[in-house]
Amino acid sequence: MKFSLEQKNAINHISGPALILAVPGAGKTTVLVHRTYNLIANHNINPENILSITFSKASSIDMKKRFNTLFPQAASYNVHFSTIHSFCYGLIREYAYINRINYRLIEDNKRQLNKYNLLKKIYLDINKTYITEEKLENLLNAIGYIKNKMLTADQYLQDNKIDIDNFKIIYNSYENYKKKYNLLDFDDMLTISLEILKNSKILLEKYRNRYKFIQVDEGQDTSKIQMEIIRLLALPENNLIIVADDDQSIYGFRGAYPKALLDFNKDYINGKIFFMEENYRSSKNIVSVSNKFIKSNTLRYKKEIKTHNPYLEPVNIIKVKSITDQYEYLIEDLKNKDLSKSCILYRNNLSSIGIIEFLIRNNISFYTRDKKLRFFNHWLIKDIVDFLILAKDTSNMDIYENIYYKIKGYISKNQINYAKTLDANKCVFERIGEYPGINEFYKRNLRELKLDFKKISNMKPREAIFYIEYHLEYDIYLKENSIKFGYTYDNLSTMLYYLKLIGENCENLEEFTQRLNHIQFLCSNSTKNTNTITLSTIHSSKGLEFENIYMIDLIDGEFPNTSSIEDFDLGNIENLEEERRLFYVGITRAKKHLTLIAPNNINGNEFLPSRFLNELEKNF
Ligand SMILES: Nc1ncnc2c1ncn2[C@@H]1O[C@H](COP(=O)(O)OP(=O)(O)OP(=O)(O)O)[C@@H](O)[C@H]1O
């Protein structure tokens, strides 16, 4: 590989602090790997004295692999490529051994005692109600944010809204419980490590002597507390090199702290800043579009992306009528593409469901980077399955009790309770009809409901879902309650669309649930091979590159998301800028072909194309 002058400068930087600010595809990871070898081979640095910190476990494995492939003669060297969490865990274990503390990790959700169960229990004890999956995720993100930004719960609440009742009490109770029983979640690894480094001079010295050269990849998504750990460790020599692209900072919601890059020269007065602005990955068309696009952000280091790569085809913007048209376009286009070099990207994991259904129908194998899709455990699916079960067996009062208030009919809890005392083999609607003093209006409703469920029992799943949605007025329930559950109505309506799509080729409830299980199985067990297309959220596509990139579901309100648009309208630009960076990460994954698709209609709801897409079109 022939290095540019910019790259050579970075590779040959040996001691003292340095920040390498680089554009996408500039060879940041490549440079770190070569610099590691340079330190060892040409500057006599003991490999064990080098610590390379990566963003994820996958990238640490990838970096080690690249090092071993490029320098097989050095493969046996013990260079430490690690995530910050893994590094911290090592430090904590050493500290725990010396001080005879038995810490237990609570990240493994297969064990009974894990952070999810613990938080669910605390939430239930305090709020007397079960926490939803979405709220649990928001709660975990908020706790992570507080720890990573080194805040208190009060400071967090001053600047952030969170839809969790008694958040502060829950937060404190979770923290106290963990402290009492020496339990650790991932974020505690950071807080405890920082405490150890601050309080144990012996360990601090030991680690400083062990890791005399520190390299940090993806510095833009390193959090405040992580930076603080790294800063302490690197002192006093400060042989620290941080490689970053502030324009690719996409983990603000988890406490990423790109401001540290902007303040680099405040923290390290003599620190050098190198720029790497040549992109080796993408065609000139993609580079020039990306360059213009990111310039609309204001909170950034000014950089220009250049490339010597040739012009290829223009960026392809496709606006289609419906989401089905989007999938059909994709399937057709993939016929001429090498699947292993192609990737479909989306803003939200939910988008994967529809495209997966279409890929399966067309016998196209796929690999999903995000294995755990919340969709399959969503209450909305449970509701739909409950409706279908009730249609098969209208005497099932347990099921009816789950759903009666979500559809038309004006049935009351008292009526249900009374009906439960009657013959369990009888249809629920007949039993409710025996409620003392029930009037003709209710009786007519009950006759109608009985007839509705009879009709549903003769329908195929797709038709049945339509009927539940509009005839039983489940859509009204969704409209009225979506915000309460942390969704927009459009989100929930899109989920119903996916369910109808999955139900399209199913004859009955059994086939429908089997198909849902089958898709879930394929997602969690998919592996990458020479004939699979990759599916990923943009967040998980960090660091990757593909010849063909498709970005789908590019509609306003989805990407950029509604809350960033609302914040922007109120004068707060930060979230919209993060959405733009995310979009930018997506488009810069493409080497040769970039296709951006916007459907106009999903489940009967009309959408506008993403404002980012309109902007790109204007830039052409
Ligand atoms: N000097 C070079 N000559 C040719 N190809 C190069 C050179 N430097 C890097 N590359 C190639 O460019 C591509 C991008 O490199 P790399 O993944 O290291 O970039 P990056 O800056 O880490 O990207 P990103 O931040 O966008 O994930 C890789 O395919 C790499 O092999």
UniProtKB/TrEMBL annotation:
Matches recorded under InterPro entries: DExx_box_DNA_helicase_dom_sf, DNA_helicase_UvrD-like_C, DNA_helicase_UvrD/REP, P-loop_NTPase, UvrD-like_ATP-bd
Entry binding sites for ATP: A22, V23, P24, G25, A26, G27, K28, T29
GO MF term set: 3'-5' DNA helicase activity; ATP binding; DNA binding; hydrolase activity
Keyword tags: ATP-binding, DNA-binding, Helicase, Hydrolase, Isomerase, Nucleotide-binding
GO cellular component terms, semicolon-separated: cytosol; DNA helicase complex
EC nos: 5.6.2.4
The family this protein is said to belong to: Belongs to the helicase family. UvrD subfamily.
Name of the protein: DNA 3'-5' helicase
Originating organism: Wansuia hejianensis
